[in-house]
Amino acid sequence: MNKFLAIVRREYVQRVRTKFFVFMTILGPVMLLIVTVVPGLLLSKKFGDTRIAVVDQTEGTKLYESVRNSLLKRDRNDQMVGASGVAEAANANAKERLEQAGKSVSGSFSVEQVNLKNRSLAEVQTELNQRIGRNQLDGYLVIPPDILQNSNSKTSYYGRNVNDMITRGQIEQRLNRAISRQRLIDNGVPERKIDDLAKPIVLATYPINENGQEGAKDSGAGFVMVFIIAFLIYITVLLYGQVVLGAVVEEKETRIAEILFSSVSSLQLMLGKLIGVSLVALTQMAIWGLAFVALSVWGISMLEGKGLEGLSLPHLPPFFFVYFFLFFVLGYFVYATIYLLVGSMVTTTQEGSQVAMPIVFLLMSGLYMAFAVIRSPASQFAFWVSMVPFFSPITMTVRIVSQTPPFWQIALSYSIGVTSVVLLLWLAARIYRVGMLMYGKKASIPEVMRWLRQ
Amino acid sequence: MNNQSSTVSLESVTKSFGEFTAVSELSLEVRPGRIYGLLGPNGAGKTTTIRMIVNITAPDSGQIKIFGRAITPELQDRIGYLPEERGLYKKMKTGEQLKFFAELKNVKGKEAERRVDQWLERLKLAEWKNKKSMELSKGMQQKIQFISAVLHDPDLLILDEPFSGLDPVNVELLKKIVLELKAANKTIIFSTHQMEVADQICDDICLINRSRKVLDGRIREVKRGFSRHAVALRIEGGDGVLEDPSLVASVKRHADELEVLLAEGASAQSLLRRLIDSGAVMGKFEMIEPSLNDIFIAKVTEVA
């Protein structure tokens, strides 16, 4: 036991003391932020307005005005996409003053009208195409004359960049809004009633449990929590899997293994290393967790101070959190022991990283299965998938949240997981000890099978 | 009860890896308080034998007893092992590293620290205690590894090629320590293919080749059994005597002396008498003892 603790202590102290650990602890969250938030920001950010010309062929260019207004007006979805919406709105005022005759400018679009004036559509299009070519225009809309009468009539958009899905979506949605509105007006619906009538309905959802009891209104928090768990497992495995692998290979690379094995068993060594690295992971995550909690408490109190309310934590039954924790720990150890196994078979860390690649795929497939499971959590598929130890940490939590399965299923799934961890650990220790005796050689599968029998 | 008196005893031990037999039907006895040389060419099975003794691998068949008992994890703590394949944690400080190795042999905190300091002092490495091992020269690292094998005051010390790559000064230093340990009644198994060193410090030897024992016993007896009746000579005159076929089988001329191989049935005494009678002036007359190296080469090539 003393020997085992010595191994754990060495592993822990040596790792926590490194500059790399301090560096990662501080920079980890920053990097996470960069990886998660920045792409979203970049995607929502559009540099400069999209300059659009509208060729309105309806009688008396009746639609232009409402299309223009609709394009310049933000809609609900934009608020979500545009994180910098406030700043843009402020800018819009300044830009408004630059407005020239016939041209309207807003945060994301500037719109101008092009009339046919007895020219043919083809002629006008040629001219507009040339303007786009000279980069005086980004695109134009062609509204056919019968758009208001014929519901099969098509509107076309021609543009330099048609791959910008966000802009394309905005145009489509806003155009749709303007045209539908006009169609309703033309059919005698009073203008002031349109907004009320077209208001989207609200669908409130209430869960009912296996005893037929109705639960509180579902906030979707469970769903979010599941993906937080999945994400946590994913990140932890990604961060520490390689560390576990490196730790196991270390004694082989430094050729200390033989010295150690004259004092301790390979199982003691493996377990000691696994626990040591896991404690390092726990330390790091605890630091991150505390920082996060402190920040959120500070943030919420700040917001409340400003008079914003209703920012309470999502309501979930406490036993969910117990399960979340248990399955998170299981998920971590299932994957950590797989890395351990890989480490026991290879001779260098580089080699190990290559062999370990499929592990990440295994992890990701668990995530994809979660999508299927959440749609039918009581299906055969969901049952079997939540029994497989590589997937159960994610799929079982999904089931627990969406439609809690009978306790025996949860217990069975967990036992299978724990058994797998023990088995993998034992296997890794055995392969490590035999493999250690042959330096500089990667183990082939038949060799490993032979070693196991030795 | 021979086992009772032996520190290590192997009884027809066999170990194979797949098709390859590394050790076959090996029996040997290592007696307490002696230095036992496990000799043999590369790949003879020395390291595999040692690994079985320290319980890293188990034999396929046969019996191994350490201190008269089958090996247990507790007994492992009484063994010090310096493997041929050895290293150090590169980024760990020397002192901490040694303390860690001591703890793995169940030497507790304070006591471990005391011993680490004592040994570092002894091997003139005290000022390197707080340096990472990657900053140490190869020779220094090797001395640290040596310390890790003796730190817990083992009753049985197993050294696999302990001196390879060390400079002569450090070889002498370690040799002195090994002899001191022997004087303190520790048993030492010394594995090498460098016969000169074995010649100097071993009491008993076991020569293995191609997984089998070729010969073993006290080094004196082994050498006596191998005596080739050769004499080293430096003389003036006496030429006629050396040409007598009843006395001399052959003469090899070296730079400033002759190596004379005596004929079958002739003795060194009679050669000496004949030379003195012939009036030769004697500069040197010495019986040549076979070196371990000679025996090693003779035995190994004989089998081949």
What labels describe this entry?
heterodimer, A: 454 residues, mainly alpha, D-Maltodextrin-Binding Protein, domain 2, five-stranded mixed beta sheet, 66% helix, B: 304 residues, alpha/beta, Rossmann fold, Alpha-Beta Plaits, 28% strand, elongated
Low-pLDDT parts of chain B are: none
Q: Considering DSSP H and I runs of 4 or more, what fraction of the residues of chain B is helical?
A: 25-40%
Overall 3D geometry of chain A?
Answer: elongated
Low-confidence segments of chain A: 76-107
Estimated share of beta-strand residues of chain B: 25-35%
Mean pLDDT of chain A: 80
Radius of gyration of chain B: 24 Å
Number of helices of chain B: 12
What is the count of β-strands of chain A?
5
Structural class of chain B: alpha/beta
Strand order of the largest sheet of chain B: 5-6-7-3-8-9
For the CA atoms, what is the radius of gyration of chain A? 31 Å
Q: Based on the structure given, which CATH architecture of the largest domain in chain B is correct? A: 3-Layer(aba) Sandwich
Descriptive notes:
The complex is a heterodimer of chains A (454) and B (304). With 454 residues, chain A is mostly helical. Chain A folds into two domains: 49-196, D-Maltodextrin-Binding Protein, domain 2; 221-453, no CATH class. Chain A has helices spanning 2-16, 19-44, 64-72, 76-81, 85-97, 121-133, 165-186, 191-197, 221-253, 257-261, 266-305, 318-345, 349-375, 380-385, 392-403, 407-436, 445-453, and strands at residues 50-56, 103-105, 109-114, 139-143, 156-159. Chain A has a five-stranded mixed β-sheet with strand order 2-3-1-4-5, sandwiched between helices. In chain A, strand 2 and strand 3 (109-114) form a beta hairpin. In chain A, helix 3 packs across helix 7 (165-186), helix 9 runs parallel beside helix 12 and helix 11 (266-305) crosses helix 16 (407-436). Chain A starts with a helix and ends with a helix. The model of chain A is unreliable at 76-107 (pLDDT under 50). The radius of gyration of chain B is 24 Å and the shape is elongated. Chain B folds into two domains: 2-224, Rossmann fold, CATH 3.40.50.300; 228-288, Alpha-Beta Plaits, CATH 3.30.70. Chain B has a six-stranded mixed β-sheet, sandwiched between helices. A four-stranded antiparallel β-sheet of chain B has the order 11-12-10-13. Chain B has twelve helices and 13 strands. The mean pLDDT of chain B is 88. Helices cover 36% and strands 28% of the residues of chain B. Chain B is of the alpha/beta class and 304 residues long. In chain B, helix 4 packs across helix 5 (109-122). The chains are: A mainly alpha (454), B alpha/beta (304). Chain A binds chain B through residues 2-3, 6-7, 10, 14, 18, 250, 254-256, 258-265, 433, 437, 439, 450, and chain B through 18, 51, 54-57, 73, 76-77, 79, 81-83, 85-92, 100-101, 103-106, 108, 145, 148.
